[in-house]
Every structure is written in structure tokens, then in C-alpha cells.
Specification:
The complex is a heterodimer of chains A (570) and B (276). By secondary structure, chain A is an alpha/beta fold. Chain A is 54% helix and 12% strand. Chain B has nine helices and no strands. The chains are: A alpha/beta (570), B mainly alpha (276). Chains A and B meet through helix 2, strand 6, helix 3, helix 5 and helix 11 of A and helix 2, helix 3, helix 6, helix 7 and helix 9 of B. The complex binds adenosine-5'-triphosphate (ATP), iron/sulfur cluster and magnesium ion (MG).
Chain lengths: 570, 276
Amino acid sequence: MAGSGNAHLRSDALLRAQDLVVEFPAAGGRKVYAVSGVSLDLMEGETLGLVGESGCGKSTTGRAILQLPSPTSGSVQVAGQELTELDPDAMREVRPRLQMIYQDPISSLNPRRRVRDIIAEPLFIALENVTRRTAMATWQERIGGLLQTLLERLAIPMRIVGLAASVAFALWILSEAVEERAAEPWLGWTEVPAAIIGFPALAIALAVAAVGLVLGLTWVLLALMLPFSLMSRQFGEVSAPVGIAGVVVTTGASGFMLWRTWSSFGGWAKWVNSGGLGLLTAVLVVWLAASIANPERAGASGVATTLSAMVVLQVFYVAGLDAGVKLIVLVVSIVVDTLLLRWVLRRYRANRNAARERAEPRVREVLEYVGINPDDAMDRRPWEFSGGQAQRLSIARALVSVPQVIICDEPVSSLDVSVQAQILNLLEDLKNLMGLTLVFIAHDLAVVKNVSDRVAVMYLGKLCEVSEPDAMFDEPAHPYTEMLLAAIPQPDPEAELGSGRIDGELPSPMDPPSGCRFRTRCPHAAQRCADEEPEMREIAPGRFVACHTPLIGETAPERVEIASAGRGAS
Amino acid sequence: MGRRLGFFFWLAVAYLAVLAVAAVFADVLPIKDPADTFAGTSKQGPSLSHWFGNDGVGRDVFSRVIYGAQVSLVISTVGTVLALVIGGLLGMVSGYYSGRVDRWLTATLNASLVIPPLILFLALVLFLDSEAKRRIFILVFTFVLLSIAPIARVVRAATLSCANQDYVLAARTLGARDGRVLFREVLPNVAPSLVSYSLIIMAGLIVVEGAVAFLGLSVPPPTPTWGDMINKGRTNLDVAAHISLMPAIVMFVTVLALNFVGDRLQQYFEPREAVL
Ligand SMILES: Nc1ncnc2c1ncn2[C@@H]1O[C@H](COP(=O)(O)OP(=O)(O)OP(=O)(O)O)[C@@H](O)[C@H]1O
Ligand code: SF4
Ligand SMILES: [Mg+2]
């Protein structure tokens, strides 16, 4: 078992995974050889069953196909497109075509979100990714070539640097103004109007500087932690050290400017009527407005952070004022903050509702597909549903993005037996309706036999046998397949107790046996099995086995040992 | 819904709200001038005209407690909010990106936990404090530095348990960017523990201000602070205990209220997870 080789692969498959290897680092510098050279393929509309003991690497194989994480080596092709070589953005665009359904339906749905948002999420994500790409594409048309790549790659660092630098510059001018005015006395009430107008602007300016500083520092921290190779991807043409140095310098500058502001505390009230503020106010308000106008792109969280930073600064500002002015400024600032906050929230809600409305018909349609009443379900949260209903929701989410391939990772294992059949039927119906191609991972051989067009048996990170289910179940060709089949509980009251047991322990995937990985438990193991790894080969039409002495065909050994240990007893 | 926050939760919230409003509007409330040494007889116990009595030099303790709340609330709120944003972000990043980023961040944060708070504070006062009126910034700065690590640790733990859930994997399977995963999937699940823990941190900061005042390093006089008032009242403990006692009681009740609100919120959000 445990063989390699690609004899079972077909030429015009929709999905083809070849020589997948997944290794995880383990304690003590060792490695977990979770998947070691597995090759699978699926024709369009086919269902492939993937079976094997717990821990043999079924889930890991499924995730490697989805590039989560991408395999240590090997190739995955969907309709001829190689996934392992795609950059993250291109991969994101492919993802909707490859979906997954999970074993535990409840934990695969975020308990804090409503069904309508959970099901619509794939649409929002796709929209976000497409918007991003088209924005990039427009740029490409306008500027083209090198400049565009530079801009694209430098987007993040430039945003931070630009923000920090402009704020630093503004603060510099302001601090000069303060220096000049330092000697003049506090004018008291005459400055109140100026304070009211100017102070929110100042607060915003400082808030932006603070956010820039935090971003910059985070960036520097990340820069120190990430390997240079990763950084250079972000910085593109500029070499990583130069890019990092640039960010460090501007972060330092905005930090210094902030510090100067802090240290002039007490003089703030006098700043507010300095000349440059009008311009600054305009710039900052435009910036804030722009980000509020398009929270989907600018990030509502960014706006929220800026606002809360602003409030924090206001507290300081107000604390430093004279008693008489304090109350007025306080009241005005509370009003201004409330209005701003309300504006942000309104915009955010309006955007969200608009998006929801656009998504609603699709969400309803898909919910009806999976047999959930949309009117009841839309506004509830996942934990208010039973396991079977939750699994339907999870299927609905996978369907929204109109996938080609769905990997079902034991989709019915955690469900009550009475519900299992319903979910399996649902999958079958949807498959026919939408022309889906399925990978069906399962423990339960009976389930696999019913749903699959082809079955692949896995053992300790390798494939043992790939066959049509009927042939395989009638006449297993690999000793491990036979063992698995023998372990199916027989509904025979006279069967010996314990006859349905798989003998021996699964060896550790950190230290797999040499040669055939199954040899430590195989009743037919010979010296050759330890020395030489069996290759996958076709021993009968449509039957592929990785074993030196398969159970069918001319080399078949006597079938006594396993028979007496397992089914033969009945 | 069977879950309720309960009467005492709302009582605590009301107390905190009243305290905050009183502190913010202290200037316009009809209370005595906190600096007026002729407000009443020195060391006079609580009476109708001076609810909390008078201190050693005759100032009204009640109005000083109200004004002291300004410092306590500003320091604790600002310190907590900043620490919450920074610590929350660091914690989420650290918990979400396992491996190298996590190791470095965790190591740094753990290292920062080793620094004795008082020493850090003294060092900062020594190096940065050219003017005493800036003390409040140094206080807040120190408090932020001190609170980042504990908050980040709590958030990291919450993020870790949530980042392993299949719904995070599902979001990534759909092609969501890391930022989207963090803010849409992780944050809503981390926020309850973040907020309730922050309230407890906030209570801690109020107490720390008291401790710092004992060294005479809190916001300098004449600005009243709770810690400073307790400290100054010490000399008169035998004859006029109320000078220390009154601010101490208010501080105690405030800390209790914050802790209680934090605890209740935590419990309020917990059962939902327990149901799963
Ligand atoms: N992130 C990881 N880090 C380290 N080891 C891992 C990781 N994920 C899986 N493994 C190891 O890889 C092996 C295969 O795991 P996998 O989850 O693929 O098994 P499985 O066949 O899906 O089992 P089950 O039927 O129990 O779901 C196991 O030995 C497991 O311990
Ligand atoms: S006979 Fe040898 S090659 Fe075949 S399964 Fe057993 S150990 Fe492996
Ligand atoms: Mg699994």
C-alpha cells in the first residue's frame, strides 16, 4: 500500500492532483509525513470517495487540493490551470470554484453572524476581490507597465509613508506657529469660536498621525519578524532594506512630531486659530469623508479607529482648557462626535443594507435549494439550528459561489443516522442539478460505496487502491482494503465478538515504515515489501493497486489469513 | 432569552455613569471649589454642608473627590482604550498568524511582562519628565505599555481557539483576505472577552494610580487625585480618618463596579458558547 505512481490518472480530468506531498514540522525538528505522494483525479461530474483510517491524511489531502495550506510539493490542476503556482490574488479568484463542506457543521458557521450574512459572504468576498482587480486593471490601462507594478507593490508602504509624511509636515508647520505665538497671552473668550472650529480638525490631525504611527510601528515590527524574501514581495522593485528604512524613517518622523505636540500641551488652545489649519481641516475632512463614503474599500474599522483616537485626544484637549471655555468646547465636541459617529454608522448601514438587498434573492434561492425555509432562517444564528439543518446551511454557503468541485470532508459523520440519508440525498440531487464534481471523504465504507463513482483507499499518507466501488467491495485487491472491509460491523448475530477489528496500530506518520507503509500490519508482508515501495499499477481493467502481491490476478496469495481473521468467521 | 444582566449590573453601570458625568461637568456643577482652603473648618468630619468633610487645610473633600475622578477616569479610560486597540491588534495578529510572527510577538510581550511596572515608570519619569504638568502623559504612556501585554495575551488565546474553527477555514476557502477574516470572523468572537477584560484592566489602572501617588509621582498638586488624597490624609488618620477614607471608599467602589461589570459581561456572553 502505500504506493506511489500515477498509473490510475486519466488524461482529460477536471481536477488532477499529482504527487501531493504535505509535511508538517513537528517538535524536535522532526516532520509529520501526513501525505506522501498522493495522486488523484476527477472527471467532470464524478464523485471520488476517499477512505482510510483516522489520521491517514484524508483531510490534509483535501486541504492541499484547496491550497490551504498548499502542498509541500506536487501539482494541483483544475481544468488545466495549475493552482500551486498561482500568486495569492489569482488563487483568491479561483477559490469560489473549489468549495469545501466540513465535518462539524456548527463550527463551520460563525456563531456571531446571521444566516443571511453567512450565506451571502461568498458573494461579498467575490465582489471585493473583483473590485480590487478591476481597480488594478484600470490603473494598468492608464499608466501601464513598470509604473503600475511599482504602484501596486508599493501600495501599502506608500500609503503609510504618505500619510505619516503629510501629517508630520502639517504638524511641523503648526509647531513653528506655536513657537512664535508662545509669548502671547491666552485670550480667553475671544478664542472660543476659533477653538470650536479648529479643534476637531486638530484632533483629527493628531488622530491620523497617531494611526499612522501605530501602522508604521506595526509595519516595522512585521518587517523585523518576516523573512526578507517575504518583505521584498511587498516592496517589489525597491529592495527590502531600502523600503524598510523608508518606513522606519517616516514612522520616526511622525512619532517625533506627535511627541512635539504632546510636549506643547497647554498651548493647544492657542494653536487652533493658526493659519494653516483651514487647509489642514479641509484635507482631513476630505480624507475622512472619502473613507466613509466607501467603507467597503477603505475599511469601516479604519474610520472607527480614527474616530476613537480622536475622542481620546479630545479628552486630553478638553482637560487642558480653562474652566469657562471647557464646558462650551465639551458640549460642542460631544455634538460633533455624535454627529460624525451617526454619519459613519448611517453610511455603513446603508452600504451594508444595499449589499444585503442585492444578495438577498440569491441567498433565498440557495436556501430553498437545500431545503431551508428562508423566511424562518435568514435572521437566525447558526447555533439556533439542529446539526442537520446547520449542515444544509453549510452546503448552501458552498453553493452560492457556483463551485465546480466540492470537497466534502466527512459531511455526515457528526450527524444523527436518521439525518445522514437526507443530507446524502441532498448532495446527490444538487450534484445532478448543478453538475457538481465531488470528493467525498468518509470513514463509513457503506456511505462511500453508495455515493462514489470511484473509490480511493488511503493508508498513512499514501494510496493503496483506486477502483470502482462495486468491484472493490466484491473483491478487494489490496490487503488493506480487505482489512477495512472486514472491519465493517456485520449484522450477523453469530459473528465472533471482535471479528470486526483492525489489528495493530497505525504507525506514526513521523516515522513511516520503509518500502510499503502497510507492511507492519500486512498479513502478506514479505522481505520485498520492506525493501521496495510498490508502484500503483493496473491489475485488472479499472482497478489500480499499489501492492507487490495483490489479492486478485495471477500473483494472488492464498486468501486464508485475512479470511479467517475477518469475514470468514461468519 | 433566559440570560439577564441583573439588577446589580445596572446599578454598577449607573454608578459609573454618574461618576463620569460628575467628573466631566465638575466645573459647572454646584460644588465647592476644590482648591478653596476656606471652604470649611480643617479636619471637620462629614456634615450636611460638606458631605465628605474637610481635609487638613479645610478644603471640601467631596468636591476634591469629584475633581480627582477626572484624573482617575482620564488615565484609566485613555490608557485602556489605547491598550485595547494596540493589544487587541497584536493579540489577533499573533494568534492568527502562527509560526514566526506569533513566536516573536509572544516573546516580546512576555518579555515586557517581566519589566517591573514601578521601575519602568520611575525610569520614564526620570528621562522624560522635564515638566511636572506632563506627568499625566507619562502615566498614561506607562499604563498603556503595561496593559498591552495582558490584553494581547487574552486576545491571542481567544483568537487561537477561534482561528482553528472551521468557519475561519471556510472564509479562507471562499477567498477572503486576512484582514476580512480577522475583522469579520475573528473579531466578533474575540470582542466580548476583549471588552470585559479591558474593564478589569481599567479598574487595575485606577488602583495603580493610587500606588504611584504614594510615591508622590502621580499628577502633581494642586490637581487633586484619589491616590494623592489618600496619601496626604495618612498623617491625620487618627484624628480625621475621613480625609483618607472617603476617597478610598470611592476608589474601592469604582474598582468594584468596573470589575463587576466586566465579570457580568463576560458571563453574559459565555453561555452562548457553552450551548454549542
Ligand atoms: N496542522 C498540522 N500540524 C501537524 N500535523 C498535522 C496537522 N494537520 C494534520 N496533521 C497530521 O497529519 C496526519 C493526517 O491528518 P488528517 O487530519 O489529514 O487525517 P484524517 O485522515 O483526515 O483523519 P480523520 O479521519 O480523523 O479526520 C495526522 O497524523 C495529523 O496528526
Ligand atoms: S503485500 Fe507487501 S506490498 Fe502488498 S500491502 Fe502487504 S506489505 Fe504492502
Ligand atoms: Mg479528517
